[in-house]
Write a structure and sequence with these properties.
With 98 residues, the chain is an alpha+beta fold. Strand 2 and strand 3 form a beta hairpin.
Length: 98
């Protein structure tokens, strides 16, 4: 997030789009985790509302709406804090809009 902060601080008026994603140790996209949400929330206020946000999460179709809700939560500047729930058996903790 340090690089995101520096880019937004120095070039925020020139940013054309934001890619909102989580990447695992194997450099593969995953659903946005609670930890990533907290990290993104640190710079969310620096992202102009007019900038398009691209979600890069690799998820099945049945969870797309949940992931969009998570993205809204990530970008909520003064909104509710996320809560955690299990999304399916064996899955890691998942965020849902409260």
């Amino acid at each position: 997030m340090t690089e995101a902060y520096l880019i937004l601080r120095d070039f925020g008026n020139r940013v054309a789009e934001v890619h909102l994603s989580e990447v695992n140790a194997a450099s593969k996209h995953e659903p946005i985790s609670y930890g990533a949400t907290l990290a993104f929330q640190q710079v969310a206020s620096m992202i102009p509302e007019t900038i398009p946000v691209i979600l890069e999460s690799i998820i099945s179709a049945e969870f797309i709406d949940d992931e969009i809700e998570v993205a809204h939560e990530v970008l909520a500047i003064d909104g509710p804090r996320p809560r955690v729930r299990k999304r399916r058996p064996g899955a890691t903790a998942r965020l849902v809009h409260a």
